[in-house]
From TrEMBL:
CDD domains in the record: SNARE_Vti1
Organism: Apostasia shenzhenica
Places the protein is found: Prevacuolar compartment membrane
SUPFAM superfamilies: SNARE fusion complex, t-snare proteins
Protein name, per record: Vesicle transport v-SNARE 13
Membrane topology term: Single-pass type IV membrane protein
Annotated Vesicle transport v-SNARE N-terminal domain residues: 1-91
Length: 222
């Protein structure tokens, strides 16, 4: 079923139930209160007529298999609205209370009221189903929002982990540079040590030769 049609239908059912209660209460009122209530009922009937026109346009724009069922519902809603208009006429008649009691004694009107009550019962059931559908939609939206919040939280955690990894990478890069510098320093020191070893070795050899020469000249040419 069209979601647009369901929205109009829910509004109509709510207005119809509201107008039915207003009509029942209006029979017991007098004076300005009755006039004000009748004015509110007429305004509600105009709103209901607008909703029926909108539902009719929406239903006729759908596929034939769906359109037939929706138009059948519309006929019931139109009949219900006509009954409400008839009740408004009885309310605004000079002897509304007497006329209401006389109408209730007539079998035809009793049948009409029974049909109207049955229709309103179906309308209330439809309203209840629509309300349940609305609750399911709200639950779905709530779940979607919770899922979205969870996704945002996960993305934030991943962003923080990425920042931590980048920081660790930068730290390791700095350590690598320090290790490279230290390696170059150690290489330079090792070369200097090797050079110093050669120098010391040369000095030792020279000293040994000098000692040998001294000993040679001392004992040979003595």
């Amino acid at each position: 079923m069209s979601e647009v049609f369901e929205g109009y239908e829910r509004q109509y059912c709510e207005i119809s139930a509201y107008l039915s209660r207003k009509c029942t209460a209006a029979f017991a009122l007098d004076g300005e209160q009755k006039k004000q209530t009748v004015s509110e009922i007429k305004a509600g009937i105009e709103d209901a007529e607008n909703l029926i026109r909108k539902m009719d346009l929406e239903a006729r724009s759908l596929q034939p298999s769906v359109k037939a069922a929706l138009l059948a519902k519309l006929r019931e809603y139109k009949s219900d609205l006509n009954n409400l208009k008839s009740e408004v006429k009885r309310i605004t008649s000079p002897n509304a209370k007497i006329a209401a009691r006389e109408d209730l004694l007539e079998s035809g009107m009793a049948d009409t009221l029974a049909v109207s009550a049955d229709q309103r019962g179906r309308l209330l059931m439809s309203t209840e189903r629509l309300n349940q559908s609305s609750e399911r939609i709200k639950d779905g939206r709530r779940t979607m929002l919770e899922t979205e919040e969870l996704g945002v939280s996960i993305l934030q955690d991943l962003h923080q982990q990425r920042q931590s990894l980048l920081h660790a990478h930068n730290t390791l890069h700095g350590v690598d540079e320090n290790i490279g510098k230290s390696k170059r320093t150690l290489t330079f020191m090792s070369r200097r040590m090797d050079r110093n070893k050669w120098i010391i070795g040369c000095i030792i050899i020279v000293l040994v030769l000098a000692i040998l020469l001294v000993l040679y000249f001392k004992f040979i040419h003595k």
